[in-house]
Design goal:
single chain, about 220 residues, mainly beta, Jelly Rolls, 9 strands, about 10% helix, about 35% strand, disordered N terminus, disordered C terminus
Length: about 220
């Protein structure tokens, strides 16, 4: 049995002790609160696979953004962050890696899509597959793993995911699909702005752009 830590040591967007507010995930919070170093990704994945939760169980943290997906903090210390991520149709993350962080999440409601990428010798990134993630699916990634997560369901169909990061994210590397600068055929292309592109303000952590994209920094809200 993991000893319970004082509630004052845990940060949360929800009022009160998160283990009381979210009793279905109290055991998971106890484990995460006991960490004094980076969590083992296999342990995180196993615990999430055994954590059967519904939208109602996370209701105080089920809050959606307007222009992009929203990250709602359930509990956090410097060594972990547990969040409910809420996505409307068309919301997605930037393409990103997980430098220095163990990340695992469980799909609570809806079906998400994970798009996986690899680096190439050209310096560009290449998509290598798309994985549908139904309710109960657990996704795990760390360090150099590059992916994008999206809600590609029809309008009106929500996606809710329960995420664990260890340690807490300070910054992550993000990537864009490359295009040649000054391409002579550029005039024949019309740029389309997707809901995902408009929702990039949903990323709360500082990021650094790689793979030939312009450098930007998203400030934490």
């Amino acid at each position: 049995m993991i000893a319970r830590m004082k509630s004052a040591s845990l940060c949360s967007d929800a009022p009160g002790d998160p283990r009381v507010t979210f009793p279905k995930i109290a055991e998971l919070i106890d484990y995460l609160a006991s960490l004094n170093g980076r969590a083992d990704l296999n342990v995180l994945s196993k615990m999430l696979s055994e954590t059967n939760v519904t939208r109602g169980d996370l209701e105080p943290a089920v809050v959606f953004g307007v222009r992009g997906y929203r990250r709602n903090v359930i509990a956090a210390t410097p060594w972990f962050e547990l969040l409910a991520l809420c996505w409307r149709s068309g919301h997605c993350t930037p393409i990103h890696d997980h430098e220095g962080v163990s990340c695992a999440f469980r799909v609570v409601e809806g079906t998400g899509t994970e798009i996986r990428f690899c680096k190439t010798d050209s310096g560009l990134i290449c998509p290598v597959g798309a994985v549908p993630m139904p309710p109960g699916y657990v996704c795990a990634a760390m360090d150099a793993d590059i992916h994008q997560v999206a809600n590609m369901q029809a309008p009106g169909v929500d996606l809710i995911t329960l995420h664990c990061y260890s340690p807490r994210i300070k910054k992550m590397n993000t990537y864009k699909m490359g295009t040649s600068e000054g391409a002579e055929c550029g005039a024949v292309y019309r740029e389309m702005v997707s809901p995902c592109a408009e929702g990039k303000a949903a990323v709360k952590r500082g990021v650094k752009i790689r793979a030939g994209a312009s450098r930007q920094r998203a400030k934490r809200r």
